């Protein structure tokens, strides 16, 4: 689904489209989360949605979708893995997810946000591993807020390029996230320097 279709969908169904596109991502809806979040920011910049409300709904869509994965992993346990393994081309992503959880523990939730598909699998795995919900929420919701804010702002500022940005992030994961965060910091510094009065 391309950015124009997402923005049209958001224009027709408003906040519900934002929430459900993200929420349904956990069950494999083939829409990159980054594109949906950026489309929400772009729709807000076009005046289709109120920016603060759009951001809050987007954030709730992100964290609720991933929390469903955590809950399913926790309730269903290891049999959930058998269901996941039946999905096409999932083995390499499961291997990456296992590796992250084994190597970084709770911090794997933070790292996984930079890796498409893996971000949906890690909550299942930490749920299966019986991570306490408070710990899961602390890590996942905190980085989820930062991740959602970053892509929402990118959508507001560079909405016409959502498809290209989404493809770069999908293909280059962590590297793209690092460049993205560095760009946001540089933009923030430039804005701050411009707003300072000359002495």
UniProtKB/TrEMBL annotation:
<dbReference type="Pfam" id="PF09335">
    <property type="entry name" value="VTT_dom"/>
</dbReference>
<feature type="transmembrane region" description="Helical">
    <location>
        <begin position="12"/>
        <end position="32"/>
    </location>
</feature>
<feature type="domain" description="VTT">
    <location>
        <begin position="31"/>
        <end position="156"/>
    </location>
</feature>
<comment type="similarity">
    <text>Belongs to the DedA family.</text>
</comment>
<feature type="transmembrane region" description="Helical">
    <location>
        <begin position="52"/>
        <end position="77"/>
    </location>
</feature>
<dbReference type="InterPro" id="IPR032816">
    <property type="entry name" value="VTT_dom"/>
</dbReference>
<keyword id="KW-0472">Membrane</keyword>
<keyword id="KW-1133">Transmembrane helix</keyword>
<feature type="transmembrane region" description="Helical">
    <location>
        <begin position="138"/>
        <end position="159"/>
    </location>
</feature>
<keyword id="KW-0812">Transmembrane</keyword>
<feature type="transmembrane region" description="Helical">
    <location>
        <begin position="171"/>
        <end position="191"/>
    </location>
</feature>
<dbReference type="GO" id="GO:0005886">
    <property type="term" value="C:plasma membrane"/>
</dbReference>
<protein>
    <submittedName>
        <fullName>DedA family protein</fullName>
    </submittedName>
</protein>
<dbReference type="InterPro" id="IPR051311">
    <property type="entry name" value="DedA_domain"/>
</dbReference>
